[in-house]
Amino acid sequence: MQPLIHLRDLVKEYRRGTERLRVLDGLSLEIGEGEFVALMGPSGSGKSTLLNLLGGLDRMTSGELTIGGLAIGELPDAALARWRADHVGFVFQMYNLLPVLTAEANVELPLLLSDLPAAERRRRARAALTLVGLEDRLSHRPRELSGGQEQRVGIARAIVSDPTLLLCDEPTGDLDRKSGDEILDLLQELNRQHGKTILMVTHDPRAAARATRQLHLDKGVLHAEVR
Amino acid sequence: MANHTVRQILAVTALNLRNIPARLDSSLVAVVGIAGVVGVLVALLSISEGFKATVSQKGRDDAVIIIRGGSGNELSSALAKDQVQVITDAPGLARIDGEALASPELFTILDLPTRREGASGPASNVPFRGVGPHAAQIRRAFRIIDGRMLSAGHDEVIVGKAAATQFYGLEVGRQIIAGSRRWSIVGIFSDDGSVSESEVWADRWVLAGAYRRGTTVQSVHAKLESKATLGQLKRSLAGDPRVDISVLTEREFLAEQSKILVTIIRTLGFTIALLMGAGAVFAAVNTMYSAVAARTREIATLRAIGFGGTPVLVSVLVEALALGLLGGVLGGAAAYAAFNGYQTSTLNFATFSQVSFAFRVTPGLLVTGVVYALLLGLVGGLLPGWRAAHMPVTEGLRAT
Fold it and tell me: Which of A27, B43, B111, B162 would staple B123 via disulfide (CB 3.0–4.6 Å)?
């Protein structure tokens, strides 16, 4: 399998006053295209920090980080934002939908960053909502949807621009078991049938079991790997 | 690329504006604050507009006012009889049967209480003018609207419409005491809202007698043959060693007369608006900070998806400008409803006498008010917008 993500000696430090806090400590890792990776570990282990670095939301302190052969840490802010729009889909624990927009408009948001005409944007947004099973909820606003449905809209938004990489930050963390299972089914389907590379942060071993590979992070260091 | 940025700006701005109902209270505070500032600014400036319109904008270019050189106003001017003769003989003036269409005039002050204060109220200085027989012809739109014209050689006065409205006891049929004489009010006149309407007129010779002025006058008001003969008149009088005088068109003279008060009011208006504006900016900043704070996670989500910082900044500014615009329109409308046409009088510093005028909320003032409101909104939105655009995305995503 072709490595999509390549990390070598990745370090991320934060400053707290005069103190330096090392959150990721010399991480080296490769993730192939089409993999479904679960990233586990206790709170404060650096999972979300790693996800943010891979999504171009934060900058590493040192090391190497390439995604699709591109050293994203070297991109200026505007180019990094553009890269995110083209290559990354985010799925958030709290869904992060815009409450004033309908499900369809929420899903259409990333396409506003493309040059697609309005009709094509709407067509793709509807297709994405159909894929997640919400074709009958196009004009519903987030407050009119259940948690599971909101997360489906979040996933539809993440995949609508056909990104290379899906980054999911505890996507089932705020859902009941049934809804959580449905979301995991959906992620598996996106991975298996649509070939999406997925990196999912989770505390839940049951969720992690759905992945093709499990990484365990503790104190900024990779400790174990299960395939 | 530009289209791309514009589309982002439109999308994020539309989201901001759709979010306003959720933040109605704080948005209203900003709108009301800005409306208050604009209302006060427009109301204050409408005083100077009204004063200027009354005193100077009615001035004509085909009429002149001639006063002693260097005196600057009628009150401090004096022209002797032979000087008046030189002036009325000069070329360039309009003539009827060879006689110059000119009115040598006396100017003094009458003490009268305002109508609002009543008979026992404190006295204000009302301009009291002694005029020649051509005075009415020289004024642009002089018209007797009640009673009749005064008769030469009699202790009679006619009263300008604005003075009659503003001051106590100036009705036709009543009498006033001034300069050891008892004057009968025989008529009320109008003159298209000019400063003359704030005056009381008497016959020049009768007034001179009452005030022991002899043959000296303070000004000569005259009509030119045409605008083009002004130069001829000026050259002739400037070259005559018997006179040292200033020849000003009515427009120039009245503009000069209104300059001091207009400058004071405008300076005062803008200073007060600036001070109040500082308060309104704080309200706007607070509102926009609240707006940004309430939408921290939304903004972070948009930026995570790939929206740039600039569209976020611009969208916050547009929202602040929209609130400013609303405040500006409301403030201007309130000032118009409350003050436009409001009649009052004030001291003309050039003559130390009262001028009656109406507040004028002009379209230009409303535009000034709206522009100031937009400026307040812009300043109010800058810091919150900058913060929204530069907030670390990872922090924003964690916001609750």
Answer: B111
